[in-house]
Amino acid sequence: MAMRLKFDLHDKWIVDPHELAAKLGTDATELRRLDELGLVVCRVVSGIGADEGKSRVTVRTEQAGWEGVFDLTGALIDESRLPDTTRLNGFTH
Q1: How buried is 4 (Cβ within 10 angstroms: 0-12 exposed, 13-18 middle, 19+ buried)?
Q2: With contact defined as beta carbons under 8 Å apart, do 5 and 74 qualify?
Q3: 43-90: per-residue pLDDT in tens?
Q4: What is the pTM of this model?
Q5: Interior CA angle at 47 toward 80 and 56, to 5°?
Q6: Cβ contacts of 9 within 8 Å, gap of 6 or more
Q7: How many angstroms separate the Cα of 84 from the Cα of each of 3, 19, 73, 79, 92?
Q8: 51-75 as b/e: b if 16+ CB within 10 A
């Protein structure tokens, strides 16, 4: 089954943590640990114009980055790894 994006009742985005961790080259336990330490940066942007109905999700840790585009149904339709040269929060830790 392909990765899916959902939103909860509070408009927080939800994906399977195991799938997301694999995209970042780690496991779900480590991703959770990094998130608890504030070392995971996430951004969700809704598309406008020609991209209306799509959502772009960007996730970055100090070691890796991933970006996925999801359609209106929540299906992953495009993805890419982000270059390692882009640092978390713009800083080298």
Answers
A1: middle
A2: yes
A3: 999 999 999 999 999 999 988 999 999 999 999 999 999 987 555 555
A4: 0.81
A5: 25
A6: none
A7: 23, 20, 30, 16, 11
A8: eeebbebebbbbebbbbbbbeeebe
